[in-house]
Each structure stands twice: as structure tokens, then as C-alpha cells.
Amino acid sequence: MEELLLRVVPGLAEQWQGATPEEIAQIERIAGRPLPPFYRWFLARMGQSMGPLVYPFLDFSAQRLVSSYAEEVVEPEPRFLLIAYNSSRMMPMHLFYDLDAPTRADAMVTEREAQGHEDDLYDQFETLREMLAWDALYQFRMREMPQQCKGTLSGDHPNLLSLIEPVMSHLGFKQSIATGPYCRLYERADAVMLCKGMPRQGVDQARSFGLGGTSDSALRKILGEIATATPLKVKVDEWAPALT
To answer: Which InterPro entries match (predicted)?
Structure first.
């Protein structure tokens, strides 16, 4: 993960700043249980500043999280831990760890109001690791590609994204990091493909994708290989720039 971020995000090594051990210990006391190992790594590397990876309205800093609990903006809960405070004035939805959904030394990232109810969750990623990697690749690789498209992969299979692995390998793509069944991040020198599904949403027959490359013909070739070599249905919803 660290190799990926340092490679993809320009200037990150010079600008990221970690939280202090005392701040990390404070957050762990708020959580009331050991922090996921990946989150400890994140706080140690970016708990004070995320550098160029910063989000427009989301504040992941340890200082903001601790102050949110100290000011009783958020109440401590055994299950949920605030990991990003949303400063938007229009219906701010904050990011929380669901600590009862641990996965691969990490935990589920869900979105809800500060004093939200357990039933009002909007799950985002199965892990914070996948969220950060997805956003870094989208912001600093996919958006830089001359041609992009977005759409869905759908089918009747217990692990949809496993079906595209041999195809992507054959096309020269490598997985950026190890991921779970709801996410795949693929790169090669001239293209990047990001796939995402919503965990715990009850809809397990589709995954959204974003694909960026040198031209629409190059992207069509990649999608055509997936459609031909797998039983998945490939649907493109949007081209950017729009095709004439």
C-alpha cells in the first residue's frame, strides 16, 4: 500500500505527516478496543496531513477526530469509530469504521450522520485500504487519461470480479494491491481500471467500473475482451470526453 501511494501520488513523501503516538493512543481509548493494524499505519503516516491525497471536505486528522469526541459532536460507541469529519454545510455525512466488521487487518468504512442510527448506514468500502487506493488511482491516474468511461459489470456468480482476473492478466494488467470481493484495482502503463461494489447492500450481481486509457478504441478492446472471455455483461454508461 505504501509503495502504491508513494508511486502514484506526486510529492506525498514530502508532504504527509503522521499523528503522534499520544494522539493514536487517544483514538484507541475512544474506540475502546485495539485499532485495526492498517488504521494504525495510516495514522502513523498521515494522521496529521494527507498531503496531496487530502479530500475536499473530509478531515481524517487525529486532532479533528479527538476534538469531535471532546466537543461531543460525536458520542463514543462500541461499534463505530469516527475516522473522517465532513465539514460540508449541506447534510454532512461523516466516515466511520464499523469495528464489528473487521476485514484483513482493517475494517468496513461506512457513511452516516454524526449522531446517526445503526440502520442509517451507507457502506462505502470493505476496508479503508481499498478506499484510499481507489481514490489515489482515480485522482492521480485515471483522471489523467485522455479517454475514460464508466459502467457496470453484471452476472450471476458468487464472486463476479474473480472472473476478470485471468483476462486482465492476459491483457498485461497488474493488481495495484490485494483486495476483497467488492473491489479490484488494475494498472498497466497506458491504462487503469477500477472496480467497486457496495458491501452489505444486498445487491451482489453487479460491480461498477471506471476505465481510463489512451483512446476509446483501446478501452473498447479491453471491455470487449472481458465481454468475450467471461459470462459477464458489460455496460458502458458514460464516456469522458463524450464520443462524437
So the answer is: Knr4/Smi1-like_sf
Taking residues 26-40, what's their average pLDDT? 97
Give 36's contacts (C-beta < 8 A, 6+ positions apart).
Answer: 97, 99, 102, 105, 106, 107, 128
Judge whether 209 and 151 are in contact, CB under 8 Å: yes
**Angstrom distance (rounded) from CA 195 to CA 182:** 8
Measured in whole angstroms, how far is the alpha carbon of residue 123 from the centre of its chain? 11
Q: Which residue has the cell 495510516?
A: 42
Backbone angles phi, psi at 10, to 5 degrees: -60, 130
Q: Per-residue pLDDT tens for 83-101? A: 999 998 777 899 999 999 9
3-state SS of the chain is CHHHHHHHCCCHHHHCECCCHHHHHHHHHHHCCCCCHHHHHHHHHHCCECHHHCCCCEECCHHHHHHHHHCCCCCCCCCEEEEEEECCCCCCCEEEEEEEEEECCEEEEEEECCCCCCCCCEEEECCHHHHHHHHHHHHHCHHHCCEEEEEEEECCCCCHHHHHHHHHHHCCCEECCCCCCCEEEEEECCEEEEEECCCCCCCCCEEEEEEEECCHHHHHHHHHHHHHHCCCEEEEEEEECCCC
The model's pTM is 0.94
Amino acid at 49: S
Instruction: Return d(Cα 183, Cα 81) in angstroms, integer.
Output: 23
**Which of 3.40.640.10, 3.90.700.10, 3.40.30.10, 3.40.1580.10 would CATH assign to domain 2-130?**
3.40.1580.10
Residue 178 has pLDDT above 60, yes or no: yes
